From TrEMBL:
Pfam families: UPF0060 (PF02694)
Organism this protein belongs to: Pseudomonas helleri
Principal location class: membrane
Protein name per the record: YnfA family protein
InterPro entries: EmrE-like, UPF0060
Subcellular location: Cell membrane
Domain of life where this protein originates: Bacteria
Similarity remark: Belongs to the UPF0060 family.
Entry keywords, A to Z: Cell membrane, Membrane, Transmembrane, Transmembrane helix
Membrane topology: Multi-pass membrane protein
Amino acid sequence: MLNYIWFFLAAVFEIAGCYGFWMWLRQGKSVWWLVPAMFSLAIFAVLLTKVEAVYAGRAYAAYGGIYIVTSIAWLAVVERIRPLSSDWIGLGLCVAGATIILLGPRFTSS
């Protein structure tokens, strides 16, 4: 369960950091948006290392599912756009996939 908290926090900081770049490059906001954006991206990187996983690639793959969930939440809360029913179905599939990747059995080749 703690992994999901780390994933969620990492996703919030990654999305916030990328949003700063989005606002600067796509919305014409001040270049000063990049200062908190880069700080946020640094925090994201540190948080992602807190996940209990033997391999970074597996942690990143599982994180992808939680990132998608958090992105849709960002869409709803920050950008005030209501998610579609297809978004909810996709979110369920992503969380299931992330869980399988993170907690699934490990087979070794003989």
